[in-house]
Amino acid sequence: MTERLYIHSYQNLGDGEVAGVIERRDALSSRGTDPEEIWANSFAAALLMPAQVVAKLWAGNCSIGEMTDILDVSVTAVGHRVENLGLR
Questions:
Q1: Whether pTM exceeds 0.85
Q2: Which residue ranges make up each domain of the chain?
């Protein structure tokens, strides 16, 4: 079993210390049905693309391309966020 380290686990590391694991996408996460993956994606979207900001940009006729530059995220991420917020 892979040990999972959360952000609070890293606060006590000294300079140059390495900890944690990289969990590659597996079959479950690729299907989009893993509850942890769904939650993490929702959290990241809210953090990087706040609903109020996205809605304001969208209402101001900002294109998805322009939004990617403003928010510094991918076209795919903005597309999903706009759709998930029910803006299109």
A1: no
A2: 7-84
